Amino acid sequence: MKITKIGSVIYVLTGEEMNSNATLITCEDRVMLVDGFAGSHDAAELQNFIQLELKKELKLIVCTHYFSDHMAAFPLFRPVPIIAHQYYEHTFTTEAYRNQEKKTRFVTPAITFSDEMTIHWGSNTLNLFYNPGHTLSTIAIDIPEADTIIMGDHSVGNIVYLYYSTPLMIKRALENIKSRNRSRIIAGHDGVSGIEKIENSLIYLDKLERSVKEAYSIGGINRIKEIKVEQCLANTAKVVDFDEIFHSKNLKAIIDRGLFFESL
Fold first, then answer.
1. What is the pLDDT of residues 8-67, one digit of tens each?
2. Domain residue extents for the chain
3. Does the domain at residues 2-194 carry the CATH identifier 3.90.1150.10?
4. pTM of model > 0.90
């Protein structure tokens, strides 16, 4: 488990399974958790870190979106209350590629909200706001004192993932994050990033659309299948594993749902 500290009270933990993130925000003898890892081993390490290293009591959990790769720790911390968007159940029940063990991670949130919610937690103000994109229930958490936004999975690697969404929804969500002018981004995976993560994802989305339309006009659907992720990345971005994995899934979603080329 990798630990990145922001200031004196924020800890970003990155697990081994899927490089999934969990963020801890301390306040005196208390701690709040945002998202809870993808793997059960990582979740157990998180529990030990809170109890043995921080020696604090977990009092509150916030979930950016109810997919199981961010929920592994939730059953370990019952009955700590969970905050989520009111559409959490839609997200959980529409998740694909999930085994039976991951279904058992579901814990009903104690508190839901629709648009905005503010939590004052020690020296930090957490502004939770509805920001659908990757899923219908995704929220983001703006922490102005830390110059940081926790945003969920609108960006993975250098790209976006379209399976559960539309290009316009993802674009609006990314632009909403960008408009907050924070220098640090905590996505659902891969630790802490700079604002370039948002820029790279927007460039990918734009280049992907142009590549799809060009490919379709030349050779139809079969030509779309040949689009390489390298064609769509920002010039400064280097291909990472997530890019390869989710670009392939994006092409399938584009073909299956007629994204980008349906109006040509």
1. 999 999 999 999 999 999 999 999 999 999 999 999 999 999 999 999 999 999 999 999
2. 2-194, 202-257
3. no
4. yes
Cα angle 84-88-94, degrees, rounded to a multiple of 5 = 150
pLDDT in tens, 177-230: 999 999 999 999 999 999 999 999 999 999 999 999 999 999 999 999 999 999
